Amino acid sequence: MIYTAILGHGTVGSGVAEILIKHNKHVSEKVHDDISVKYILELRDFSNLSYAAKFTKDFEKIINDNDVKIVAEVMGGISPAYDFVKRCLMSGKSVVSSNKELVAAKGAELLEIAAKNNVNFLFEASVGGGIPILRPIAQCLAANDINTITGILNGTTNYILNKMIVDGMDFATALSLAKEKGFAEKDPTADIEGHDACRKICILASLAFGKHVYPEQVKTEGISKVTLEDVSYADKFNCAIKLIARAKRLPNGKICADVSPRLVGKNNILSSVDGVFNAIVVRGDATGDVMFYGKGAGKMPTASAVVADIIDCAKHLHARKYFYWQDGESDYVVDENSKERLYVLLKSSDFKSLVDSFNNAFPENTWNIKNEYSGEIAFITDEDFEDKIFAKIKKIKYDSFKYMKALI
Amino acid sequence: MIYTAILGHGTVGSGVAEILIKHNKHVSEKVHDDISVKYILELRDFSNLSYAAKFTKDFEKIINDNDVKIVAEVMGGISPAYDFVKRCLMSGKSVVSSNKELVAAKGAELLEIAAKNNVNFLFEASVGGGIPILRPIAQCLAANDINTITGILNGTTNYILNKMIVDGMDFATALSLAKEKGFAEKDPTADIEGHDACRKICILASLAFGKHVYPEQVKTEGISKVTLEDVSYADKFNCAIKLIARAKRLPNGKICADVSPRLVGKNNILSSVDGVFNAIVVRGDATGDVMFYGKGAGKMPTASAVVADIIDCAKHLHARKYFYWQDGESDYVVDENSKERLYVLLKSSDFKSLVDSFNNAFPENTWNIKNEYSGEIAFITDEDFEDKIFAKIKKIKYDSFKYMKALI
Question: At what angle do helices A195-209 and A100-116 cross, to 10 degrees?
Fold first, then answer.
């Protein structure tokens, strides 16, 4: 018999309890041992549940019970999850977690503690919900040098952008609809402003490149400034706007990472990722591009990923998984002046001098739309260093200026 | 030091040798031990290579060397690979293989032998080349009941269909081009007629559903009958034609599986899988649809998957991976009269009576194209049992009749 405890009984936690308790036979079969939930830590009252007897408000009971070998942390947030996870690992319990905020902030430290105590710390559910992504990176792509990870990592923003693209809704209306449908939280800031995607790309980059990338090191921009005008120009350029999280290993071993809305060419399969779906493209030197796609959130997808980690821990109670990255230095992530293609939108009350100065600044550019009626030029640049592109734009006579990166 | 042997030095085998020898430091770091190639079994002469000293023509040398703990079988075909793999496993060596023909024909037996001898038999490279798919199914989706697996599993046929769709090439021309570009073999039968895709869906279904599905149990149809006319009608129905391999678990626990060209709706992400790319969609009860995408073949992608398996074996020399399925019974795979949507193309020299009888047989059908000029009706049926659809078609007055399944 292998005893587990679940910390938290929210959306994901209740899903984990449901699978482990209701589908116990199925899970135990996979483990080749009986698996049992001994405690569920939760302050709220669930005395009406059939498994109410498992609930406790006292973490000390769990930490002091040596029978508990695996703990699922599904509380979210840093405090008190960080303390709880640390203490569990130090007392020889393996921990699985769906908590991206915690892993993005403290992953290196917690993995180090797990290694020292010869237990496992797994967190497949923290990125991409039910999409298998961390294990494939760690195991299946082990013979590759990974160069780039590019992902649509937030379903809420992808849903909103999709509504803007397909139904011509403006941002505010699409956000309201997402809230109504339960795809956006009451306070949607973390999703809309890109923080959620940022945490996930930090976890992916840390694992793929071997050193911790911290959220505050990643330039992050959300989608709140994307307008229907941008969406429509993107469509004319045969692109779709997506919130793209990206991490790249530079030849000098440093990492370059950002989260920002981008125009994605329709020949890129990421442009076909619609609705609340997520997708992650991993570029390895041997495999080329490999993509993982599915629903990135939701109770049962995420809970099933947590349970898969529990199963893996249960099978490896006495054998550590090699799941590890080092701490990163403050200069590990650099704000590189990278080569990009940019989408640029310029407006002017003097359309003629806008056009003339544009033609002078970008004489070779053939990928542009000149709209005399609205006094605008939208164009997509060739790939070049960003500062070079901006230097050229400076020579143009415009009243207002806006740009977005492209992935074409 | 962990010693390995490579059976075969063809396309994949030379890639494996290259990674293990040239990138030895990288691989050894991942294993946390030194890994070394002791033998390469090959009848052909490679005496010009820097690592020529490792070559041998004598399998007995390898099997009798107790230092060799891991053997990579990358010869392809059943004989002598089957014998060699069996003997390696029985003598306590772990085996990794890229040989889909072998795994599809003998997987259950070899997994059983591996289990009895407490060694590993891994074959990630046998399906989807460098795309991680078997481990994610076995580990990450462990808390799911998998219902359906749907895949584009053969790059050659996908390339040919893509050329027909995008460039309007006919089948024969597209096949010639594929040969020229090295995407099709001199004898392309196994690809074109669906046998290659069939082997791969057998492996996927065996792993996902727990019992061996044999190639001869799977109804298999290739793409040689797909015409430009079909491609053009598909486009008008907002679909693309893809060679789809499918396996489904029925409520009674039996399996239904087939390989056939299908019209795939453009809102299905599989329709966006172009060129030599492969993609596999796994539908789990908790995760919903999860897709894995990448190049399904090629020297380095496949070799890197073999090496990842070697790394995994090396890390688990004394701990067996739970990678297993039982043998299947002869009635395990059933030729179910399943519910499908069909694309149907009817021709007649008497167009008026064709149309009239069609309208009578399918009075509700609104998804059809009537082409008086060519005397044809193309239509897509609602989802229904195939025999019911065929009974209706029988009532129509046509001269010739053709159909394909759809996935819309």
Answer: 30
